[in-house]
Amino acid sequence: MISAAPHIRSVANVVYWVGLIALVTSCGSPDADSDRRYLVMDYDAERERYETVESQIETLDDARAVSGDIAFLRGGGNLVIGEPAPQTEGEFADALRIENDNTPRVSYEVDGGRVTAWDFDSLLMLTLYHHLERAAFYFEEIGVGRDVVGQLPVYYAPSLSFIIPVNLLTDNAAYAFTMDALLFPRQMFLSDLPLAANRGVIVHEYSHAVFNRLVHGDARAPQYLVEPWPDAAINRMRALDEGVADIFGALAVGDPNFISPSISEEEFDIDRDVSRERHYTQELERTVVDGDPARFNPYILGSVVASTVWALRPHVDDTRLGRAVVDALVDFSTVGPAFDLSDFFDSLHAHLPTEAQPSACTIFTERLTAISEQLTCAE
Amino acid sequence: MRRMTGIWVLVACLFLNLPSPGAESPPGTDDEQANDEVPGDAADGPDGNDKADDDADEQEADKQDRDEAIRAAWAEIFAPPEEHRWELEAGLGLNQWQTAYGGRQQRRYGRMRLRRLWLDLLSTSMAVDFARHAPQAGPLEFTAQRAALTTAIGVHWWADRWLLGVDIEGGVLWNRRTIGNDVASHQFKPLVGAAARLGVSVYGTASLSVEYGQRWHPERLDRLAILQLGWLL
């Protein structure tokens, strides 16, 4: 009779070595993707300038398609007007769409764990995702979880043309609330840091998505577009949206003039420096009250809001300040047509640390002269 | 190349200020001079006259041979285009290259090509084209250079002064990229392509043509259009 013992020992040997190999390969060699460092363009707060740096991108699942938990990129495409005169939220959701967009195919090389893009657009798309991830991480720190915004579609280099095949959509960045998507058209005339590589701009645009979730309840159209709101309330709400986005961009990057690396103040006469002292005067209030929302410039009053909040930094650290702004926005989830900016600053004042509230009240009453009498803290 | 020999003869004539074929002989180089000879200038004595005549005849024969060579060279240079066997082309074009996001951007490029015609119809050629891309992006310093070395085989047909041609090509594409202070990286990719060409000859010695083609290399399909000037040899 042949003994079974040698065969059993052979099988055991095989199992042993297979198991050992599996153990070694699973524990000994790290996950290649999570250890990768991507060459991107990022802001160095110490040197106060943008530089190429190696940085990890933790949430990127598909580097070639630039897709991950935070966002998925779509390339090219044409912006098409769907519903020309939307009235309901459903019609607003169909107002704009992008057709003929593509899945990106980023070219890069991997050398010693470092991923370096092979062409300019690949570099910008990887940088863009990196900054979106950093924006999401920043908002997590100040109390807005990733699931609040979710995975955003981001359109890189979409175009818009009417009748003649000339692209009219260039040199800008936007959050389109009807599509719940970010748009980064191609840069054709600006010659400074591309907007898609400007981390402050990315945080600013991501902030609009956060505002949409917290204040407008993730609606594809804000209430003031589907309900009869007074023009003044619409103008104030839009200005608040822009002002809050500017303050988040400045706080996240640590640069009060985060837009200047991409859009020169001298060349384009655009002043968005939140460290510059600005006042909400009666004259400005008249433009808010009398202004037609179709022509109202929300950035002027928005810069007042942002600079007033920035002025609180000596009295409260940036993280707590950001949390206070988020908490103030959460209070506006039930905002109605009677909305006034004093309501926002009252809410912000209430969410600030107790030791910072007196100083905050002083700053609010000094700068927001047009609404100082409505501020609760001033009573 | 016989055409090249003719070219150098022509260059020599231009520098030595010798007449081109078909032109009147420059003054003082033909029998006029002999007719203008002053009596008494000839060498003295009957033997001297014979020697002088022989020398004059030899010089005349040399001059006729030289004039004939010059005329032949000019005839070669300005021969009908289909009789030329070589063509050296240089051009500037636009490459609608396929980007990483799927759209297309236009980039300028330059090219030089040396073409050989066979049997009045077939053509083979080698070409080098090159492009540089350095977008203005403030602190983001990015530079990319591309060069392609290709060989092509095709059909080129001259109808009077007009040319119609089709090529298929294959070769290698070289990319060089620098980001900021990063060390430059290189990359080689194979490529294949096809192009169609429409041209016209100028005085049989030059050509002006436009060419449109598509070129595929891994993950990208480029469209190229080029305006080129050719020298028919």
Protein described:
The complex is a heterodimer of chains A (379) and B (233). Chain A has 379 residues and is an alpha/beta fold. In chain A, 42% of the residues lie in helices and 15% in strands. In chain A, the strands form 3 sheets. In chain A, strands 6-5-9-11-10 form a 5-stranded mixed sheet, covered by helices on one side. In chain A, strands 2-1-8-7 form a 4-stranded mixed sheet. A two-stranded antiparallel sheet of chain A has the order 3-4. Chain A is globular, with a radius of gyration of 25 Å. Residues 1-9 and 14-32 of chain A have low confidence and may be disordered. Chain B contains 3 helices and 8 strands. Chain B has helices spanning 2-16, 31-35, 46-77, and strands spanning 86-98, 104-118, 122-133, 142-159, 162-179, 185-202, 206-217, 220-232. Chain B has an 8-stranded antiparallel beta barrel with strand order 1-2-3-4-5-6-7-8. In chain B, 25% of the residues are buried. The interface between A and B is medium-sized, with 38 and 23 residues.
